[in-house]
Design a protein that fits this description.
255 residues, alpha/beta, Rossmann fold, seven-stranded parallel β-sheet, 8 helices, globular
Length: 255
Amino acid sequence: MTAAMFDLTGKLAVVTGARRGIGLAIADALAAAGADIIAVSAHLEPDGSEVARRVTAHGRQCEVRAVDLAGREAVAALAADLTSGQRPVDILVNNAGTIARAPAAEHSDEDWDHVLAVDLTAPFILAREVGRAMLARRTGKIIFTASLLSFQGGITVPGYAAAKSGIAGLTRALANEWAAHGVNVNAIVPGYIATDNNQALRDDPRRNAAIVDRIPAGRWGTPADLGGVAVFLASAASDYVHGTLVPVDGGWLGR
């Protein structure tokens, strides 16, 4: 095992949800390892974005795409854009996600449809279209962002739990079909990572204390904690890793 196995120089990586949080940290880590980045997010600034600043600080190129992944036509247009360029996509990180919190009996159809569109349907479409091009070249890395709720049911987030359970199944299903053709499909499973999505939990003293007490590491994770795993799954070091869900959870699932 050498450092060269983790070198992403010359690779092009697409990272969705790259404006902030986990996606921003993953884009930063991939760029530090040598990859150029296409950053995708619904509200990504055309100029002066934090992701572009971080990527270019590593001497890498950064292109930005402001795309709302809740819209089927917008996702299809993004997929066409990504697969029609002169430079092929080597790494696809399907990270973008959203969450809606409400008791199941009050969880609206609108919230359900929106969460499933962003968290499951868009990742599948992008993986299918970009993956098809990877299959033709017999090389490529696809990384999904799953969740602890890919294994657990959660509380008051039925749409999110369903979508992230779907991501776990999709990761395995695509790996079963594509592993023999040189395309690696895996998922990162973030634990309780301090992001905007869970600000409400961190602001609730009772829930926050219960969560931290349950984590063997004794703290919330940070987005940067996911960077090393992302580089591993994007690099040659993981060439024989297929269909896995890699927890980065401070030991939560082992408790």
